[in-house]
Amino acid sequence: AQSVTQPDIHITVSEGASLELRCNYSYGATPYLFWYVQSPGQGLQLLLKYFSGDTLVQGIKGFEAEFKRSQSSFNLRKPSVHWSDAAEYFCAVYNAGNMLTFGGGTRLMVKP
Amino acid sequence: EAGVTQFPSHSVIEKGQTVTLRCDPISGHDNLYWYRRVMGKEIKFLLHFVKESKQDESGMPNNRFLAERTGGTYSTLKVQPAELEDSGVYFCASSQGYSNSPLHFGNGTRLTVT
């Protein structure tokens, strides 16, 4: 079965600094990968997804992620973090039947 | 279009009581999913409906949990009787009928069992 690991439970960055959140997956074939964000009091919002094609995918809110098969990674990046980006971020992979397997989440804090 | 709606947003009940969570998916979405996040753990799959049929309920923790989706529209998830370890956030998601269509999540119901 597929699995997803987010090695960093908490990350703190200064506003305006760049951000990279790590995600590693375990899957035999080409995975379908997602990043979701949960802001305080909100549900899970889809930031971006990778199914096939270009390995660098653009998402909403200025986020991007790069699929690297050789490293089994799908790291999320943003060049300049805003205070409103403080939230919890989840990497996920599709299992059969459209079932998502989630990583444990990374909580992002943004320092002024 | 309206998103996935969950009710209530919070529920606090005592151990042994019954609670029913409701999810209204996006109109026209055949797929409906329930997920749960227990404090400090990953978000875990509970079950998947396709219209009114249970496609996969492998994630349901035990027979104290009962999910229904009458008429293929809204869904309910009943916990009876609730136990302390049932506390967590219950998410509902829906998606269209085609393969690998993205899941749209509701805001979740935070359940606290005391």
Could you characterize the architecture of this molecule?
- The complex is a heterodimer of chains A (112) and B (114).
- Chain A is 0% helix and 54% strand.
- Chain A is mainly β and 112 residues long.
- Chain A has strands spanning 3-5, 10-14, 19-21, 24-26, 33-38, 44-50, 56-58, 64-68, 73-78, 87-95, 99-102, 106-111.
- In chain A, strands 2, 5, 6, 10, 11 and 12 form a six-stranded mixed sheet that branches.
- In chain B, the strands form two sheets. In chain B, strands 2, 4, 5, 6, 9, 10 and 11 form a seven-stranded mixed sheet that branches. Chain B has a four-stranded antiparallel sheet with strand order 1-3-8-7, with no helix packed on it.
- In chain B, strand 9 and strand 10 (104-105) form a beta hairpin.
- Chain A binds chain B through residues 32, 34, 36, 41-46, 49, 51, 90, 94, 97-105, and chain B through 3-4, 6, 31, 33, 35, 41-45, 48, 55-56, 91, 93, 95, 99-108.
Topology:
The complex is a heterodimer of chains A (112) and B (114).
Chain A (H helix, E strand, L loop, with lengths): L2 E3 L4 E5 L4 E3 L2 E3 L6 E6 L5 E7 L5 E3 L5 E5 L4 E6 L8 E9 L3 E4 L3 E6 L1
Parallel strand pairs in A: 2-12
Antiparallel strand pairs in A: 1-4, 3-9, 5-6, 5-10, 7-8, 8-9, 10-11, 10-12
Chain B lengths: L4 E3 L2 E4 L5 E6 L6 E7 L5 E8 L2 E4 L8 E4 L6 E5 L8 E8 L8 E2 L3 E5 L1
Parallel strand pairs in B: 2-11
Antiparallel strand pairs in B: 1-3, 3-8, 4-5, 4-9, 5-6, 7-8, 9-10, 9-11
